[in-house]
Design a protein that fits this description.
alpha+beta, 3 helices, SH3 type barrels, rod-shaped
């Protein structure tokens, strides 16, 4: 077989064979975990990560943290570890949400999740 005599169609077939060997990207390590997601313009959300693609994140069973105060600490890291104080404003459960501009994902402790879920 002389490569100089191959047709365009034959070259496309060979290229397809090589393209089929591409590796599938590994999912983000937080997929399946309950996290706090902080966005540039959509606020703060807590939910289970379905997928992550750069700054785009899909959460399921999420709630928006409209106003919050950590039980311990002063930042979202404290919320993710110890939960929230009473009096916080946390919205209703949302089955699924697509977030853009996510700048921070923080895995939550079981204690924090119970605290967030306990706000009605």
């Amino acid at each position: 077989m002389d490569i100089n005599e191959m047709t365009y169609g034959e070259l496309k077939q060979i290229a397809t064979l090589f393209g089929a060997t591409q590796q599938v990207a590994k999912p983000h390590p937080f997929v399946g975990k309950y996290v706090i997601a902080r966005c540039y313009s959509a606020g703060v959300h807590a939910g289970e990560v379905v997928s992550v693609d750069g700054e785009n994140v899909i959460l399921k069973d999420s709630r928006r943290l409209w106003s919050w105060k950590a039980k311990e600490g002063i930042a979202l890291s404290g919320v993710a570890q110890t939960g929230v104080q009473s009096g916080c404003k946390i919205d209703v459960l949302n089955p699924e949400i697509a977030l853009t501009g996510v700048c921070e994902l923080i895995p939550c402790s079981a204690q924090a999740r119970e605290s967030i879920d306990g706000i009605k």
